[in-house]
Amino acid sequence: MSPNKQTKFPCLKRAAVATAFFALHSVALHTAALAQMQTPAHFVAPQAVTPVAAPAATPAAVPAVAASAARPATSNVLRAATVPTLAAAAAPPVACNAPAALTHLDRPLLHTMRRLANGAPLTVVAIGSSSTAGAGASSAAATYPSQLAADLRERFPGHDITVLNRGVNGEETDNMMARFAKDVVAEKPQLVIWQVGTNSVLRDRSLEQHAELLHDGIAQLKAINADVVLMDLQYSPAVITKSETDDMVDQIALAAKTDNVDLFERFAIMRNWSEVQHLSFDTFVAPDHLHMNDWGYGCVAKLLSGAIAEAATRPITSAAVPPALTAAPAKPGLQ
Questions:
Q1: What DSSP string describes 173-211?
Q2: Residue 163 DSSP one-character state
Q3: Given 3.30.565.10, 3.10.420.10, 3.40.50.1110, 3.30.1360.10, which CATH number is that of 48-319?
Q4: Residue 240: exposed, middle, or buried by beta-carbon count in 10 A (0-12, 13-18, 19+)?
Q5: Which one is predicted more confidently, 19 or 273?
Q6: Which residues are within 8 A (CB) of 280 and not within 5 positions of it... i.e. 6 or more apart?
Q7: DSSP labels, 92-132
Q8: H or E stretch covering 231
Q9: Greater confidence, 316 or 158?
Q10: How far is Cα 321 from Cα 41, in angstroms, rounded to an integer?
Q11: Of 55, 129, 182, 295, which sees the most CB atoms within 10 A?
Q12: Radius of gyration of the chain measured on its C-alpha atoms
């Protein structure tokens, strides 16, 4: 545990919430099972996903949707993805929102900015573990990198934008770094989004050793002249019950600040959904209680695309960017 940790009450509170969630979810599943014994079900249940992501031998996710015609414009209202029930079928759409302070990127994305200003193709690499690969999503198109690609093309119509999904189930920080040369450097990206930390917490790895790996990995990514955005842990029942979760979140934030790269605060955003907006975990977390579902991935993609668009069009004189470069207007309700 970090010596400067002031209290464990927030962690204990979240653990209690997660425990209550598990209990209520188990009762609901038991009731549903009894009902199905009396009346045959007519839908196919989603494929189960194990709490700890599959081994690294799982094939790496293929690139997100290649540059092509942009999808029709969508609003910031997403449908909650849950196990099919009569109540869920009648549930109203849930708005995708988060405070601006949580979605803002502190540093301008200079390499991305120049690329867009010059009208040159933009390549984004999303590297990470199962929540980048898309565990819990209903299809490859529902993963956050695929939805991010579509959202960025909407914001920058006419630009050739590709987002490559380089997530591999079960990987930790050192496993991802071992793939940097092949899966990141070789693609010559202008922007790298590195999702990191969750599996190290789930497996009780040393935080001190992880801090050293994270610092080294950031240095390697910065050396290829790409913008770097770190993405921290997901706020889900299986994650928030771990005692080192808060310390890992703090460590990633400190690394971003110390090494002068951006941070997308996924953990704080999802905690806001739960504790402030009072969305149930079923709204944004898959049935395995660990990964995100379609709604969760979609909302993260929308908020992240908005943050990238703002940081890549922010007035910065040192970036030598023509003033005419602007992103398409943000959708209502998005930050």
A1: HHHHHHTIIIIIGGG--SEEEEE-SHHHHHTT--HHHHH
A2: E
A3: 3.40.50.1110
A4: buried
A5: 273
A6: none
A7: PPEE----HHHH--SS--HHHHHHHHHT--EEEEEEESHHH
A8: strand 227-231
A9: 158
A10: 58
A11: 129
A12: 20
Residue 108 backbone class (left: φ over 0; alpha: ψ -120 to 50; beta: rest): beta
| Pairing assessment for the beta strands 122-128 and 161-167 based on DSSP bridges | parallel
The residue whose two tokens read 């302070």 is 101
Based on the number of CB atoms within 10 Å of its own CB, is 305 exposed (0-12), middle (13-18) or buried (19 or more)? buried
Residue located via tokens 């494929």: 47
Per-residue pLDDT of 183-237, as tens digits, reads 999 999 999 999 999 999 999 999 999 999 999 999 999 999 999 999 999 999 9
* Phi, psi of 125, deg, nearest 5: -110, 125
Asked whether 308 and 145 are in contact (CB, 8 A), the reply is no
CA–CA gap between residue 145 and residue 126 (Å, rounded): 7
d(C-alpha 158, C-alpha 169), whole Å: 33
Q: How far is CA 227 from CA 112, 132, 149, 312, in A?
A: 7, 18, 17, 10
Distance, CA of 24 to CA of 15 (rounded, Å): 14
Q: Say if residues 277 and 237 touch (Cβ distance below 8 Å).
A: no
Predicted structure pTM score: 0.72
Distance CA 124, CA 226 (A): 9
Q: Which of 309, 323, 295, 30 is nearest to 144 (CA)?
A: 295
